[in-house]
């Protein structure tokens, strides 16, 4: 029997937003214009406590005295439970390295289009330069250019996609990712301790963790009220580390108590968020909070994002410590490799991807 033909994904023409911006269009192409219900709120003056994402001082966890450690563990646990997001200061990553990755990422995005297109993100895939998560011709597009690479383990790498220019880009990604990896393992230890678990529980459970990096570049947009920089989504990782480049406008917004809360960047801090894996493991005690990015009328914005997740072989489900009569099991067990595949083959749509693992509760009414 002849093989069943696989129909290629038809995504239509995807405008490169940086090139589009150069033409300064008076009207935004329809594929970027969001339906009314999706359009962003750009200036929401918020009053405390909604306006202040928690700040965690990493040095109090790593080298504080016992009292400082306990207080910061408590702050971390509260941040994870109430926000799913926090900013880390004094993270012990060399600030020269932080600055280098930022400068080199910017230099990459400023290269001529033909140079960047030497590393194309093929439709339906997530590595290289382009727009990920586009699967149909009628899907709205984000006001964003992305460049993504698999980092660890090495089998997730596609060496053809590691840029030769700018010089030192690839080696800096390597060094930076090594440092962020250490930070992720450390944060997972403190998150475990804050949950009353053994410090090494996640490291042992995750095997050789999968790690990827994505640089997001958001050019200015003449009508930021009509477009989204990045569609609402939760991250398919265990933890995500987000570096917001210096001098950029506020762009990240998180959905808290049904309100989109803008995140004020703190110089040299890293934004950390709980991903879908930790939501499942804690049976929803810690949630992977929906977030999005908005564009700015005059300023561009760059973010450098690391996704840190369990090995593809790992089977996951709520840990027994978080399941009881009051908190019945909300997620089924699944293989993380399958979840990963599911995540990267679906468009970003709020928290919908996690339906993959949700146990549907019967409506008894
Ligand atoms: C554009 O890419 C992503 O947004 C993304 C992809 C990450 C990945 C790579 C670039 C190559 C290696 C595999 C992996 C899927 C991790 C987001 O990552 C999230 C989604 C999942 C699932 C995850 O673990 O992190
Ligand atoms: O650019 C941002 O602030 C958000 C990035 C993000 O959420 C992501 O890449 O998953
Ligand atoms: Fe995200």
Automatic annotation (TrEMBL):
The record's annotation in InterPro entries points to:
DIOX_N, IPNS-like_FE2OG_OXY, IPNS-like_sf, Oxoglu/Fe-dep_dioxygenase_dom, Plant_2OG-oxidoreductases
Query: Does the UniProt entry include the keyword Oxidoreductase?
Result: yes
What keywords is this UniProt entry annotated with? Iron, Metal-binding, Oxidoreductase, Vitamin C
Fe2OG dioxygenase domain ranges (all copies): 209-310
Q: Does the keyword Metal-binding apply?
A: yes
Please give one Gene Ontology molecular function term for this protein: metal ion binding
Q: Read off the Gene3D superfamilies from this record.
A: B-lactam Antibiotic, Isopenicillin N Synthase, Chain (2.60.120.330)
The record's family statement is: Belongs to the iron/ascorbate-dependent oxidoreductase family.
Q: What is this protein called?
A: Protein SRG1
